[in-house]
Amino acid sequence: MAEALRQDTIAAVATAIVPQQGSVGIVRLSGAEAVAIARQLFQAPGQQVWESHRILYGYVRQPQTQVVVDEALLLLMLAPRSYTREDVVEFHCHGGIMAVQQVLQLCLMQGARLAQPGEFTLRAFLNGRLDLTQAESVADLVGAESPQAAQTALAGLQGKLAEPIRRLRATCLDILAEVEARIDFADDLPPLDEVATQHQIASALAEVTQILATAERGELLRTGLKIAIVGRPNVGKSSLLNAWSRSDRAIVTDLPGTTRDVVDSRLVVGGIPVQVLDTAGIREAMDQVEQIGVERSRAAAQAADLVLLTLDAEAGWTEADQQIYEQVQHRPLIVVLNKIDRVSQPPQLPISPVVETAAAKNQGIEALEQAILAQVQGGLQAADVDLAINQRQAAALIRAQAALEQVQETAQNQLPLDFWTIDLRSAIQALGEITGEEMVEQALDQIFSRFCIGK
Asked: What is the crossing angle of helices 288-303 and 319-328, to 10°?
């Protein structure tokens, strides 16, 4: 697969194309013919030197007619000092649609192939510039929706995850070598120091478990959190959304049933991307349109990671609130006691946790965010965000953890050393899959298919 990829030259638009909004668009090529294609298309006036890591100024021309397609800059990055460790050329064109698309089509007409999703990064991996954890971090960095998610992705790109995984795999390889040496050369070597070896296995297992504990944080940072604001009509759900998002996302009136559909807003809470859904007030609908809105509210509550059951502090806990609670009580839930500024004494409520707010006056939002973090993170918002594994990495670590636990059990039961090697090899393979040192082609296709084209 790696050899096949090195035989052709790929091209793609490497920047987002937004009509009338993008000032610069980049067309990227990688492969043995990248420079030759660039020379056919790009005219650099004067005595500009075509050498690596130099930017040339000039014009992209149609080779047959010499018609100017765009005034552009050309960036040359020759192998191995490039992202893919192949010859890479970038045309920095005017943004928008037409310029970059025309330049891309000219590249394809000169023999380049349109890149597949993630193929530039795949080549970087196959050519040894990145390991698999770094490649996945590239995708995470591009898709980051919060500063904390970007920071974690950047740490992964810098090898903060690969380093401990490689160290753990090296430890397991060393143990396996010691064990196999005693099997093959039992008469020539002293007996295996089983106490010291079991201590090494226990230390490796503890580190695997520690890294595995970051899976939940990684999932939160990558996929975010979906929160549904539910409650009776006119308890202040829309006011809460507006105060929280610092915008007028939802219409607010004193009339019950104003919100007829689910309104969403995207926020960042404690470094975690959050999608907040303001739902229609749940009650017996007055008309068909409101009935549809109520059904959508119920569906949003069932699909949410966390439900904010919003109450009116003046009304207290009503029979209608009890009915709504019975519909959502199986979901993680926080009670928001709104309009607290209108009462002298908060009413007693049968459930907790409770956060008091006065959304119309922008009060209580910070306390609400702290309650959300305490509910869903359980302390995961720590300052150390260097490690946050994804689902694929977690699955491999779970297999490594099980294999090391089995080695421990084998040693404790004083079984022959041959039995140790079986599970040690399983742990080594699982750890190698994380960094890509042991990987099958189908898994690579699945990983890189999630990338955007051009990256």
From this structure: 50
